[in-house]
Each structure stands twice: as C-alpha cells, then as structure tokens.
Design a protein that fits this description.
homotrimer; Rieske Iron-sulfur Protein; Naphthalene 1,2-dioxygenase Alpha Subunit, Chain A, domain 1; seven-stranded antiparallel β-sheet; six-stranded antiparallel β-sheet; 17 strands; globular
C-alpha cells in the first residue's frame, strides 16, 4: 500500500547513462532514458507494437528506439516513427513525469496532471561546498514500510549494528516522537557516552580526539511518501551537544529514499551527507563503504521479517513507544492513500 | 495454445543415445528411448507402479527399465515384466508415436490413431551430398508463437542482430506475405546492397569477393504446426539475385523447428542447411557457432516480451504489414486448434 | 498429511550450538535454542514485537534475545524483558515441547499438553559401548511418505544403489510384511549369496573374509510417526545367518528419522548404528561418507517422483506385495491423522 500521487526516487543519476533503464516502481514497469540535452524521461516499458520492453532498446538522437523492430517512441508516449510504417494510428503508451535533481531521478507514478516538480523536497546538502555526499542502492524483498519502521526506530542499532554504530546507551535513552503536519520526528539525545566505532573513525577523520566522552544525537525525520532523513553526529561532551560549534563535532545527515517496487519489495537508496571534510573524496568512499556494510546488516532481518508477516498476515504486532516513529509515519501513509482512493472514487462518480 | 494432432520435433538424434531422455512437449511429460535396432519410442514419463519418472531409468535389451524398482516397460505402454511380480493387471501408460527423421526425433502428442509418418514434412537437404547441415537447441521461456512472429518478420534483424545479419536495407525494403493453403510465405528481395558481416564471411568461405554489391533475399515459409524455413542468401549483384547461377551466390536455408513445452515456454531447434562447400566440416562448425550467437540475441527479447504480455494479458498489440507473416501463421494455428476442438466435441457427442 | 501429536526429530544435537536455529517442522516455523544448562527449548520463530524471526537473534544468559530490538523471550513464550519497555501485556507466542535425546533434538508440534517425553522411542545403540553411530541430514523436496515407501521396500536397492548395496538377489527373494500394533515389519532373508561392495568392505573392516558366500538380512521396522529402523547385515554362510554368533557376522541398524517440513518437503535424518568395531572412529567416518553417497542416490528419484505425483494428483498407483511395507505404514499414518482430527472435532463440539 503506497500513495502514487507523489515523487519517488527511481534511480541515481549515475545509473542512467546512454542506455535506457527498465525499473518497476509502485508495481508499474517503466523505461527511463535521457533525451535531448540529457533530459530524463520515463514511459511505460511496453512497446505499443508487440509488447517488447523498450528498456532493451537504445537512444538515438534523443529518441527511445525499440530494440526489436525499431519503433521510435517519444517522451509523450506517442510513436514518432517506425521504418516503413505510418504511425499516426498507433496507440499511445503511458508516460511518467520524471525529474533529475540532487543526483537522483525522481518519478511520479500517479495522476500525471498532478505532478509538480515544486513538490520535490529541498536537499540542503546538494551542490553545497560545505557538504559531501556518498551513497548506494539496495534491492530488498520486503514491504517498504518495514524500512520506514526500521529507520524511525534506531534502538535496533544496538542489536543489528552492534559492532559499528550500536551501543547500549541507545536502548537506555528514551526517544521522543512528534508529528508536525505530514512530517514525523523521532529524536534521541545521549550525553557523556563513549563514541561507537563508526563515530570514533569520523572524529579521527576530522582530527578530533576519539577517546573522550561525547554527546550523541539522532534526529529521524520522516516525510511522505517514504523519505527518512536522519541528523546524526557526536560532539565532544560539554560543548553543547547537537548545538556545539562545528569545531567540536562531526555532523551528518543519513539520507534514505525508500521506493516501493511491488507490495513486498523495495528500492532502498541510502547515503550520507556530511558537513566535515567535504573536500576529502577518499573519506567519502570510506564512509560509503562503511555505511554500505552497516546497512546490509538490516537486509536479512527485513526480508525474513517480511516472510514471517506474509505467512501470518492477520497477526497483530505491538506498537510500543519506540515504534511511535514508524506507527505515526504509517498513519500518514494510510491517510494519503485514503485521500487518493476517495478522490479517485469521487472522480468516477462525477464522471 | 497449440494443435496436438501434428508432428513436433522433440529432440535432435544426438540428444538420444543409450540413456532415456525425459522432455515435456505440449504440456505432456514424455520419456524417449531407443529400443531394438535403435528404433525410437516415446511413452509417458510415469511408471505405473509408483509414479517414478521412467526417464531416470535405463534401457536393457531394447526395453525401458524403471530405475526405481526395475519395472520393464514396453513401447506399447504395457508393462512387460517386473521382478517377482505378475504384471498382467498393471494399467497401461500412454504412448506417443515417435519417428526419427532428418537427424531429429519427431513426436505426435495428440490422438495416436491419427499419427501418420507420411505427414512429416520433406527436407530436401537431408542426406543430400549437395547440402550440409548444422544446428542447435535453445530452451526459451516464451510462448512458441512469439518465435514464429520473430522469424516471420525479419525486420528485427536490423535491431537485434545489428552486428551480424542486420542492415538498414531490410527495414527499407517492403516485404510481401502470401498464404498458400496452410503455408505462409513472407519474402523480401534487396538489390545492390553491401553484404552484412555474416554473409561477407559466407562469400569468403566460398571464395567469392565480399566487397562488392550483392542482391540479398529472405523467403520465410511457415508450415504448421510451427516450422519456419527461411531461404536466405546473397548473390553478386547483376547475376540474377535469387535466380543467379550457383557460382555467383551463397544459398542456404535457415531451419527452425519450434516446439511448445508449456503455454509459456518452448524448445527452439535452430540450424542452417547450406548449399555451398557442403564437405567443409570446419565451416559447418563455424556457421553453427556464429548462428548460435546470433539466435541467442533474440532470447532475452522474447522472454522479456513474454513477461510483459503475461503482465498485461488483455492489452491489444498492433498488426502491421511487417507482422503479416506472424499474423497469418497464427491464424492458421488458430484454425487448426479450433478444428481439433470441434472434432473432439463432436466425438464426445456421438460417443 | 502427518500426525502432529507425536515426537519428530527436528535437528541433530550438533546443529544446535550457541546460536539459535530456525527450522520449519510440520508447516510450523520454530526457533530452537539452548537455555540454562544447555537445555533445549523451541518457540515460534516470530517475535511478538514486530514479527522478526527470533532465530536470527542470540542467546544471552540462557534467554533467547531478538536480534532486532532486544526483546528477551522466555522458554514459556512469554516476554521476559525489553529495553525501556514494560512487557507484562505482551502477547505470548507458541512454544513446543523439545527434548534432547540420542544426539537429536525431538519436538512435539501438536497439542502441547499431550507431549510426554516417555513416548520418545528407545534407541538401544545410544551411549552403549558395544555400538557406534554416525549419520547426516538431507533436505528433500518430496512428501515424507515417499521416503517411508522407499525404506520399507528395499528392492529399489538393486536399481538405485546398484554399485554399493544393490544386488539381483534382493529382487529375487520375496519379502514378508507383518503389522504388530502400530509397527510394520518387512523382512527379507537371502542365503548363500555374494556380498555386495558395501558389505564386503564391512567384512574386511572387521577382519573377516569378503570373498566367501554370505547370508544377508534386511529387517525394516516402521514405527509412527515416520521412523524406519533397518536391521541389516551379513554373516558367513552356514553359521546361522541373522542368528549367527557375532564373530561370523557384521550387524548394523540403519537409522532413519523422517520429519515433514511442509506437505511436499522433508528433513531426512539418516545414519547407521553398528555393532562391530565400535571404537574405530575412522571406520565411523568412512561408513558415514559411504552411506551419505548411497542415500543421496535416492534424492533425485524421490523429488522427480514427487513432481510427477503433483502433476497427476488423482492418478492411482499400484500396491504390490513389495509395497506392502509402505502401504501398511501409510495406513497407520492415516489412522493416526484421522484419530487426531476426530479428537479435535469432538473437542470443538464439547467446548
């Protein structure tokens, strides 16, 4: 269950080069490609001629060409040409609004007349010399909401990520969840604790002592449809924690774009934007590698959890205080889906 | 959807040696084996004792022996013997008419009393010193009719086989489709064009210049249930094209036997019979290898096309002039299936 | 179809060390672990918090800890603790009686109040200096009853195991099946025959001549739910066969515990207890390796047989005299299942 009148990340910019890219988003198979001036387009991955996947084709002079019989598809879903054929009567295929921003391809799977690029959220860290960004993509065979739950409740770090970012103090420190309109924020502030291995390394990378007590913060922010940004960092204790001056802290934002592929699988775009040593590309690579390993630790858990839930579809789960972030996020998702369904029924009635 | 009162190619002769061979043809699991004097037989791959697959057994003194408990099966589906048992009351299993011809095992999956070996089509090239033949087998997860479409519309060569047999002139030259009884012929004649790489190599192999303009022809002939023979070749331009004397041309027949395994998978026997340098076994191997690579280029396209069609079962496809060969061939298939269904209903009514 | 109010072997003791073990038994996913004093427990593999598999967690101080958010599960299915939570209202999860005996973990998947460890069968060979035991585990994608059939009719050895324990004399010698309460015994005694390779090696291992005629016996004993113990051995001919004094024979028991995983898959625990050279650990390893290879020969046959039966679910199979062991065993299984169903319906009626 997912809203469709919203922007999802479909791919990173790096994934889409000269060749088209086929990908299923929200149960819809799409073909992405770069047209003139590298502009990104998305159409149904279904050639109107004989149903071949357009993503197996190629791009010629800005047009998507079917790799089976050479039909040239326009970004408006209308066939432009086909060798030896008049194409005027060819049925159009569906198109999807697609926008490239922040190094990602964003797509709007629902009503295309509602797609407004202004609704794509702002990302402060993009194209900003104070920040550096690195990230990756995982395909996970689980409902995308299990990943929202995961990221909006970081007590799991103590168990799943015990050797990197987990520490008992996370469990021991209560978190606080608030809802602000369509956003949900779950935050936890830990004081005067040892830094876990990942943050020790970050302190060292910035040239700060890693063997002194720190204050640590985690501020998880969910926004629809399923983006989770986590402000995460540590400061040498006694300098103001989250509010400490830059020279006493390492500060970053964990960036998570979670996109439903099907009802029980997702594309998980993860990354980290950091506000320290942004010019250090080697550090960016090191962090990406480290984060990739850490986030891979969640995958088996989520896929096996999904298998359990699929086998017991009606079994009730608990909603504890630590789950408030996920529970509130799902409530917003549910409301958006209900609104879409109501609007779609009304449309049918008045039509 | 496929007719069953017809001969299909089930295997190449090479595939069936001392051991039985289990294969599903038209949704029926069959065990093929060689009895006395190497004669080929086909029975249900189901031991009447406990349902073990007979194809896991062995052949002893011309009899198929179940590898589980030693039941000896006759080519008439009746149990011959079983250690320590009286077998008179054993239920018979189904048998299939099977004939070895042209280096292939042919099988008749439908009403066995209708199976007439005289209905197996003639193959001029077999056992003929003027011809050489080489080929192979691919298993493809797609409806067999998608391969018929593919072979009856060679404009796809321009796109799928761009580096070997494809060339823009195919696209640019109209084809002509005619129906003669149960046969469909789609032909295309190109004049005064450069030879594509595959045919350049063929010209060289015959000792002909490969850098001069050629006339090229493709005459695709569908006959039921799903055989497609393609006369294909090139002649030095100005010598009469298809009708040119042998010394100015390289002439071959692409041989395609397409056999349904299930509703969405097929056995695809492909090969080439050529009428030049038939004694050159090395050339036969080279052509087989080249053709195998070219025909493998179609497989992903067809399997992904099948996935698209399975996901959108009711979506209409276009029927263009280039599709006429496939469309007409499917019309004949449809008629044969309808006739079989009508005959079978009538039989039930009169019974 | 399987009875559930009975003990099944779920794992060998070796499989369950420090980490929990997740396994499906009779369609139920269970988490096995060792608590205090290494005692074995089994609970549903479903954390009551969010449905994570408990088997992905760890054991701490005798308690099973969920690897996702640290919930501590007790062996009674009640949550003991969870960081920062009151757990009193947490719903309990199911538990399964589990007992470690004879080097195996036994589990009772049905009504837990009926689970009585005294019902676990006696195994004479365990912890007995006169005996040695070695074995292994195979996962087989077939109904567990196909393995019961297999083991209660050893004529298949002639075909499936022709190079090790098979010999024509098995086929030629009639077997005898008797039913004693819930047990079925199928026995075959062969006199004055050559020993097959496996038994030749066993004779040599004991220092006995392997090139003289032997008497050979096979006494297969089925007991519910699906244990098959096979007394198997050979004696130098003329010394009394099965009754021969120990110095003239090699005597062993093939131990088979067959546990349904799902309706069409099983866990097959196989092994051999032998009463000769029990102190020779190298011999134990050699026999385990040899037996493992022999028993692996059955797997493809059973899995392909299952595929055939799944494709033809209503087709009748034969029940010959050689099948009497399997047929009688299935009759007992059927009766036990019927009794359980009747009891469960009565319970519903009176409730």
């Amino acid at each position: 269950m997912f809203p469709v009148n919203t922007w999802y990340v479909a791919a990173s910019s790096d994934e889409l080069k000269d060749k088209p890219l086929g990908r299923t988003i929200c149960n819809q198979r799409m073909a992405f490609y770069r047209g003139k001036d590298q502009q990104v387009h998305a159409v149904e991955d279904f050639c109107p001629h004989r149903g071949a996947p357009l993503s197996l084709g190629f791009v010629s002079d800005g047009k998507l060409v079917c790799g089976y019989h050479g039909l040239e598809m326009g970004c408006d879903g209308k066939t432009i040409a086909m060798p030896g054929q008049r194409v005027k009567g060819f049925p159009a295929i569906g198109t999807y609004a697609a926008v490239e921003r922040y190094g990602f391809i964003w797509v709007w799977p629902g009503d295309q007349d509602k797609a407004d690029p202004a609704l794509i959220p702002e990302m402060e860290w993009h194209d900003n010399p104070e920040w550096a960004y690195g990230g990756g993509l995982y395909h996970v065979k689980a409902d995308y909401r299990l990943m929202v739950d995961n990221l909006m409740d970081l007590t799991h770090e103590t168990y799943v990520h015990a050797t990197s970012i987990g520490q008992p103090e996370i469990d021991e420190t209560p978190c606080r969840t608030t809802v602000e309109g369509d956003a949900v924020v779950t935050s936890r502030f830990m004081s005067d604790i040892p830094a876990p291995p990942f943050w020790k390394a970050a302190l060292r990378a910035k040239g700060l002592a890693d063997d002194v007590p720190v204050d640590r913060w985690q501020i998880c922010r969910f926004t629809p449809p399923s983006h989770v940004m986590i402000e995460a960092g540590v400061a040498h204790a006694g300098h103001g924690g989250y509010e400490a001056p830059a020279e006493h802290k390492v500060y970053s934002v964990v960036v998570d774009f979670i996109t439903p592929e099907t009802d029980t699988s997702m594309w998980y775009f993860w990354g980290m934007a950091r506000k320290f040593k942004p010019e250090d590309a080697t550090l960016t690579d090191q962090i990406r590698e480290g984060q990739g390993k850490i986030f891979a630790e969640d995958l088996e858990m989520l896929e096996r959890q999904q298998a359990n839930l699929s086998a017991h579809p009606t079994r009730a789960l608990l909603k504890l205080n630590i789950d408030a972030g996920g529970v509130q996020s799902r409530r917003i998702i549910d409301r958006l889906v209900s609104q879409e369904q109501a609007a779609s029924q009304q449309q049918e009635t008045t039509a």
